[in-house]
Amino acid sequence: MNHIYFYILVTALMTYVVRAMPLTMLRKPIRNPFLKSFLSYVPYVTLAVMTFPAIVEVTQVRAAGVAALLAGVYMAWRGKSLIQVAASCCAVVILIELFMKI
Amino acid sequence: MVRKNTEAERVVFLFSKKEFREGVQAGIPIGIGYFAVAFSLGIAARNAGMTAFQGFVTSLLCNASAGQYAFFTQIAAGASLLEVAVMTLVTNARYLLMGCALSQKLAQGTSLRHRLLIGLDVTDEIFGIAVARPGFLNPWYTYGAMLGSAPFWAVGTAAGIIAGSLLPGQIVSGLSVALYGMFLAVIIPPVKTNKAIGICVLASFAASYMAGILSPLNRLSAGNRTILLTVVISAAAAVLFPIKENEAE
Fold first, then answer.
1. Which of A42, A48, A64 lies nearest to residue B205, judging by beta carbons?
2. Domain-by-domain residue ranges, chain A?
3. pLDDT of B4 over the 80 cut
4. Are B16 and B40 in contact (CB under 8 A)?
5. Cβ distance B223 to B70 under 8 Å?
6. How far is it, in rounded angstroms, from Cα B163 to Cα B151?
């Protein structure tokens, strides 16, 4: 890609605007019920859409991705920390793929 | 709004070595976690054809997992600048909410300069530790946490781009799910107590899977599918399960 730094600048600026805007401009909580509800669901929906089915497609063996999804959901459900959840997903994939390739 | 700060408020945004040091101490373990996740992000960046330096710069400027992941995917797909701008807004929309919550933690007299600096690095984790501080937030605590964690994020991304090609397939495959593990750690715990979020997550999984195989949605880029599904599902959820006025975030 030719103007890659231009792209980086755009994504960096947009990211910054989203973060700095409420801190600098908003001194009161949002009142509009629809907007407030919409914004509160956005993070979960975006992350969920990005996670599945991508997590089962990114691994070399599909079963390893499915196992990583189950392990991640289980660990997160048990209230494990972000690092523990991410690490168990990794470990499950590495073990299953090692096992299946041999 | 002109308003005199009370003595307690004024103390809150003055430089404090103690606050700064506590911030760094909280930031370093976050940074170690970032390194692993950034490594997997680096693999996505490498797949998009980015150099280690480009990945390093992107991570240093953005500090955003989902947003950067979407960005690298879009670069790989040859997206337009406008698509990148819109996608960045959508994938980082949660920071708008976090920013709103965090703005309530700042003493009203906190200067614009401090507000702009804090805004550089409102990540899920730094937001989490910042709102958990008792009373008003001293900006220097946040700066300490940023300094302790952000370098790991940028270096981890560069390391993923460089070393991603040197590692055996299983290891790369394993590390590339770290990012999704991190996403799961954010979306799953609230499902236990909030039925609406649970329905949102399940509907999102199902819709995302269907959109990937059904025409004409499967012809959209992954990034555009994410934008479309996010807006539609979140709006539907807002209509079906509106949040009560005084309910906690």
1. A48
2. 32-101
3. no
4. no
5. yes
6. 18
